[in-house]
Amino acid sequence: MNIIEILGNVGFDWRVFLFNLINFTILLFLLRKFFFSKITAVIESRQKIIEEGINNAEKAKVDLENADVTRREILSNAKDESLKIIEESKKEAASIIEKGRSEAQNQAEGLVKKARQDSEKEKEKIMSEVKTNIAKIVTNELKNKLESNVK
Sign of torsion, CA 50 51 52 53? Predict the structure, then answer.
């Protein structure tokens, strides 16, 4: 048994095969002449569009990562700046409180000093009046004693 007989037994016909081969070759020639260049151009343009899309997506990803890094830096700087402002505010508030305490203490000391001075003046005034009154009383008593002795 040769191969032609085997192929014939399974229904293979050389004439149909040859006709199909010729039709395929003609179809291939026509497709190549009229459509392959257009199809290739469309495929290449779509491939370029896809590559540009991929490149744009990668660029967008890099830009997004850069924006995220920038956002983190800005947030970090803002946090540092806010902490610095808070610290400066606390120092300024402490300074104002200390200044107020100092002024209040100075005023209190001034009031105490003035009160002591006023108290001292009042004491001197009272002592002067007491001395004057004692002197008058002594004078009156002496006068009365002298008058009673003279009578």
Answer: positive
Q: Which two tokens stand for residue 12?
A: 């293979």
Q: Which domain holds residue 79?
A: 3-145
Q: Which residues contact 14 (CB under 8 A, 6 or more apart)?
A: 4
Q: Who has greater pLDDT, 3 or 135? A: 135
Query: In the numeric block, which tokens belong to residue 111?
Result: 């009031």
In a domain, 43, yes or no: yes
pLDDT tens digits, one per residue of 83-140: 999 999 999 999 999 999 999 999 999 999 999 999 999 999 999 999 999 999 999 9
**Number of domains making up the chain:** 1
Residue 150 in domain: no
pTM of the full structure:
0.44
Torsion of CA 103, 109, 111, 115, to 10 degrees: 180
| Tens-digit pLDDT profile for residues 8-27 | 778 777 788 899 999 999 99
Residue 69 lies in a domain: yes
Q: Which residue has the tokens 């902490």?
A: 83
